[in-house]
Q: What sequence folds into this?
């Protein structure tokens, strides 16, 4: 599966600032489609970012998060060229793991 | 069941326990169904943290005064409190008020930004759990166009 997250991670002064955005519709399950039927809920419910085997950020999301969810945070550590691992799951049960480089 | 399968089962369970111990410590609990599906903010807060939150100036909530488009409202939560474990964002009048919960492990700054949907003009509340207590900050955001598909 194609990557759903675009991650920009910048290391500066011993800290790494991470901005990430997923390509995801975040269907709430409350909206009606063109055929008048409800579109079933389909949204990202958990996102976990780890660096060097240690979890640095976790998010549990609900349908109230905007389409194409954006998350930004900063953690201590991390250096240019190292890798972040992003694990996500959907309410439908799909999961995925992606990696992104720190710049 | 013969001896062979028993030995295999023991080996497999041993491997599982080892894996569990190696997993990094998780700061937030799994997706809290009761909290995320709660229809009122009080219920959601109770299900998530088990107590009401105390208003505090140490929780900084950044949100616009007027959001033109309720589908995309940028919200940032920042706090200088010590021992922060987790932070949550609530939108009071949404069908399910709890928008997101963030786990903040040691070493991660308590400064998180995201974007939320808002159905109508209402209060946005940031709740921070630090050292076993919960603190909150609230701000009213006026919404011109609702973000729930109208």
A:
């Amino acid at each position: 599966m194609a990557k759903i997250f675009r991650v920009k991670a910048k290391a500066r002064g011993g800290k790494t600032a991470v901005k990430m955005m997923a390509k995801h519709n975040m269907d709430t399950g409350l909206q009606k489609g063109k055929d008048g039927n409800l579109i079933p809920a389909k949204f990202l419910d958990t996102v976990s970012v780890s660096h060097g085997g240690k979890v640095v950020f976790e998010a549990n999301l609900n349908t109230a998060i905007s389409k194409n969810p954006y998350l930004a945070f900063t953690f201590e550590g991390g250096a240019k060229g190292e890798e972040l691992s992003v694990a996500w799951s959907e309410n439908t049960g799909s999961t995925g793991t992606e990696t992104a480089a720190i710049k | 069941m013969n001896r062979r399968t028993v030995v295999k089962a023991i080996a497999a369970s041993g491997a599982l326990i080892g894996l569990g111990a190696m997993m990094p410590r998780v700061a937030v609990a799994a997706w809290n169904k009761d909290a995320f599906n709660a229809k009122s903010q009080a219920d959601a807060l109770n299900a998530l943290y088990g107590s009401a939150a105390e208003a505090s100036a140490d929780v900084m909530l950044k949100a616009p005064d007027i959001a033109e488009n309720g589908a995309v409202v940028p919200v940032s939560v920042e706090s200088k409190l010590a021992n922060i474990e987790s932070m949550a964002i609530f939108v009071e009048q949404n069908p399910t008020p709890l928008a997101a919960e963030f786990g903040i492990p040691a070493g991660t700054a308590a400064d998180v930004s995201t974007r939320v949907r808002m159905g109508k003009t209402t209060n946005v509340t940031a709740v921070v759990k630090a050292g076993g207590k919960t603190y909150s900050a609230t701000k009213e955001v006026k919404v011109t166009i609702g973000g729930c598909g109208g």
Confidence is low (pLDDT under 50) at residues 17-27 of chain B.
